[in-house]
Amino acid sequence: MNYGIIRYIIARVIFIEAAAMLLPWIVSLFYNERCGIIFLLCAVIGMAAGYFWARKKPANTSFFAREGFAMVALSWIVISLIGAVPFVISGVIANPIDALFEIVSGFTTTGSSILTDVEALPKCMLFWRSFSHWIGGMGVLVFVLAVLPMAGGQNIYLMKAESTGPSVGKLVPKVQKTAMYLYAIYTALTLSHLVLLIIGKVPLFDAFCLSFGTAGTGGFGVLGDSFASYSPFAQNSTTIFMLLFGINFNFYFYLISRRYKNALAMEDVRWYFIIYIVVSAIITLNLLSAGSFVSLREVLFQTSSIMTSTGFASADFNLWPSLSRALMVMIMFTGACAGSTGGGMKVSRFVIYVKTVAKELRQLAHPRSVKLLKMDGKPIEHEVIRIVNVYLCAFVFVFAASFGLILLDGFDLTTSFTAVAATLNNIGPGLNIVGPTGNFADFSALSKLVFIFDMLAGRLEIFPMLLIFNPGTWRKRG
Amino acid sequence: MNIIIVGGGKVGMTLAAQLNGENHEITLIDTDAKHVDAAVNSMDIQGIVGNGTSYRTQLDAGIENADLLIAVTDTDETSLLSCLIAKKAGDCHTIARVRDPEHYNEIEFIKEELGLSMAINPEIAAAANIYNLIQVPSALDVDSFAKGRVNLLRLEIPHGSVLDGMHLSEIERVAKIQLLVCIVESEGDIIIPNGDTVLRAGDRISVILPISELRSVLNKIGIRARPIKNVMIAGGGNISYYLAKMLVKSGIEVKILELSHQRCEELSVLVPEALIINGDASDQQLLMEEGLMGTDALVSLTSIDEENILLSLYANKVSAAKCITKISKIAFEEVVRELPIGAVICPKTITAQMISSYVRSMQNSMGSNVETMYKMMDGRVEALEFKVSENAKGDFLGVPLSNLNLKPDILICSIIRGKKITIPRGRDIIKGGDTVIVVTTKTGLNDLSDIFA
Question: Do residues B268 and B290 both lie within one domain?
């Protein structure tokens, strides 16, 4: 284990997070909020600490897979701990565990909240909560990679650990350029959404916070009723942008570099839209037959919000008929595309699962038949299939363990199950008590810690978080 | 530059590492996902699994924006086809490794028709390198610059030499030797020396000196310099064939030891002037019988590295022959370098070196002023050839070198003006139109002005 490089990278991450804290401070100046000074204080201390800690470059800058994964997991824990500090100091969320839950929910773009009254928060705190979505959406280390020139090719491990999806590829040969492209696309999309929200007569402050929430597929709102009171135009544009942020970013890169054929060949993007349309259609029919249909806009918004793991709500789907509610829970698991800012298990994994099962059936009928599974017109490596399968096992284990621990609190099955599903898949709202109008405030401290772990594990796709509990990870290399 | 490398074998990997280090954007294509994975995980490059001869794969690798495609696959046909497709699809420069003598004999035609920028035959390149070594007695290594006009010789200071314990600044005055020491390797360190550097016996120094004075200078230093008249080659592969051809042409007696009778017969037709012996080169008795004791040079070129090393070790022990050892797979380099096996030749490194210096020179036309670049001592030292344009402006022009402040670890080792090659001293100046050769341990120098502090 190369501790030197881990210290160096984490120091850089702290520096960048501290610098990001200057933004809520600026916001507080606009609204004359005295608690904004806390952000300035945290920013200055954090930047100084990060700067001095990173001043001595480690002698050995080479690292391998395990350092990469450990670094990513630790960085996320560190940014969460630091990010919670302003909430605690200002007394807005005085309980440290609650504050940590809130900020982890922000960075992991989950959007679950323990707050009972969002509107009571000072603007700078609301801004920081939403801005954490934007930071966490594309990833902190991807940002570090984009701005920090680092020698050595091993930094691909950082990107692999933080980006979503089973196989992470680079857009262009250099990691740094790839990271820069990703952030450029991310920023451009965020700005477009911001402009549309402002056109849709959303107040400026809300527009900023909501576009951050959409971009990171987070879901923190600034009003108690989330999205219901904004204009139809703002809601529709958000529906579209949530979907856009759930698409594999490679897709945009292909469009920009005018490789339309490659873009159209992306199977997960295709299935992502098919699933979205089919689920929306079934829910619409189900609502119609149950007589609770309000508008197509409402259905499209909720499905888009849940499937991309954003978690905004313009209606309470908790009141929908069982079939619709079950479908909502199911698309929590499929999630968005790999390589997007969305959560869930990712459509591309499900495509592989379906193909693997189909292949197994064919194998039973023709035991000696040979067929390579293909994705996007290219054969899938056995290694990738293996990792995807193991991912499912790990996911189920973590899910079951969390579920068991949450049940100790004595809530009903639906609440407990969907609470775990909503956090592990980084969605935000679940059903019943944790539904779109509810929150996580009533859970015990232990349950909240479990949720915090689940959110981090979900965002980093399980393995980095499990790896730091493996003693072998920390052993020095002989 | 955007560079695509087809083939992730040893040469492909070496090239990728080297070119990536020089800040080019590398995409590696290989059919084996394992190779690609290993490459992508260890270097900051992109990898594509696929067949390099496929148009689609090349498109995926971004052939349309590529400046150069280097094909170093297992077979000539694959390499050539990859280059042809790249040329048509991306209109980029192409370099192919071409091994088969049958192809290489027609290389001019192939180059013309396929629009290849460069075709490289590793065996011929290695043979030429060995030939150079044999030409210059006792020098461990020869590098040629300025199209062969300047030679950098690497030699070891023997015990009891006048140079032992001498300051560089005293060499000319005390030892009456005119030479410019460019690089000193001392106990594993590589230094670009200045006047205060002290030489020790056992140091390896790289020097520039006129070939005409070579022999007398070597004698003064205390290196026995005897022209090589006969050479024994162990192993009868392609390198041996090319080398024998070259040696025979310059009137040196050649003896080739080869195990396979069939290959012996082939060689006897290909190189009738050489003496072909059918036998095992690791057979001590045979070696003695064929006069290992009396031979001036032994070149170990069998296909097995270990055998080559043992053979050279043995020859070094029992005879005074100059040894040259081929090693295909450089591993445990620190150990190998310390063995008394004479000069070491690695065909793959030579290939990678030649290609990367071509890339450098290609880049010049795209910005920097480096004419050619040579990597030496495993890439730890670079020799760069800068062309100063006729009407160049720069405050270093026309100023005596003694008044200029060079950055540390940089040394100007030659100034070429027209046909005249000067080994620079303090009073010499650089003028427009000159070619300047610089040796440095720094990397990434792009312009002559970069060398001045």
Answer: yes
